[in-house]
């Protein structure tokens, strides 16, 4: 992954968040406080503005700057969590590396989200989209899949994981306050996490 690739990923994620801001907010209105779309939109717009200020020279610097902006700009749970994803990703990614390095850094990002938020698979959070994507990337790398194959598999896995959050009862975050009433609604953070994976495919394939 080059610094240009990383910048394209962050910018494309911001674009997808913009395009889906109403859906993300509507999902959060059903089981949260109706701010997930605007939280992510504000954070990613600030991240893009920070990259516009000056172009970082390495993918790690791109992702570290994005992380810091998200943690600083987004008040909700999602800012520190996506921020931690990008921070751990930035520590693990190399310049000029292949899909195996992306998969390893993505796994490091997921591990950071889990360490920070303590969510387990099936808790109806962003982990339910990020986890299957990390698994799909690792499987493709182990099987010798190409970068486009691995990214396609990651998108399919993230979107299936996102869809599978609908029947779940939330065990973490605001939605958990609803208990059983959180069932029957797709998780907003799993939805934005699937957009993060889709933007990686669009930017990196
Ligand atoms: P807030 O809930 O503070 O208003 P957002 O609405 O922006 O923040 O984000 C909500 C999303 O954050 C949820 O849909 C869920 O996916 C994710 N989330 C909340 N708590 C956790 C956690 N502990 N671990 C992982 N993800 C979480
Ligand atoms: Mg919210
Ligand atoms: Mg909130």
From TrEMBL:
A cellular component term, taken from the record's GO annotations: cytosol
A molecular function (GO) term: glycerone kinase activity
Official protein name in the record: Dihydroxyacetone kinase subunit L
Keywords associated with the record: Kinase, Transferase
Recorded superkingdom: Bacteria
GO process terms (BP): glycerol catabolic process
Occurrences of domain DhaL (ranges): 4-202
One Pfam family matching this protein: Dak2
Lineage: Bacteria, Bacillati, Actinomycetota, Actinomycetes, Mycobacteriales
């Amino acid at each position: 992954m080059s610094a240009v690739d990383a910048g394209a990923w962050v910018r494309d994620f911001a674009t997808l968040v913009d395009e889906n801001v109403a859906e993300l907010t509507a999902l959060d209105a059903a089981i949260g406080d109706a701010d997930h779309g605007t939280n992510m939109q504000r954070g990613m717009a600030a991240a893009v503005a920070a990259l516009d200020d000056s172009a970082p020279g390495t993918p790690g610097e791109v992702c570290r700057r994005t992380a810091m902006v998200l943690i600083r700009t987004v008040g909700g749970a999602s800012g520190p969590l996506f921020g931690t994803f990008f921070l751990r990703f930035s520590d693990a990614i190399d310049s000029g590396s292949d899909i195996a390095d992306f998969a390893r850094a993505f796994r490091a990002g997921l591990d950071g989200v889990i360490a920070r938020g303590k969510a387990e698979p099936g808790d109806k959070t962003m982990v339910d989209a990020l986890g299957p994507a990390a698994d799909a990337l690792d499987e493709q790398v182990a099987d010798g899949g190409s970068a486009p194959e691995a990214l396609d598999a990651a998108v399919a896995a993230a979107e299936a994981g996102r869809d599978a959050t609908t029947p779940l009862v939330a065990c973490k975050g605001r939605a958990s306050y609803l208990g059983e009433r959180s069932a029957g609604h797709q998780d907003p953070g799993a939805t934005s996490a699937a957009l993060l994976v889709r933007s990686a495919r669009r930017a990196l394939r």
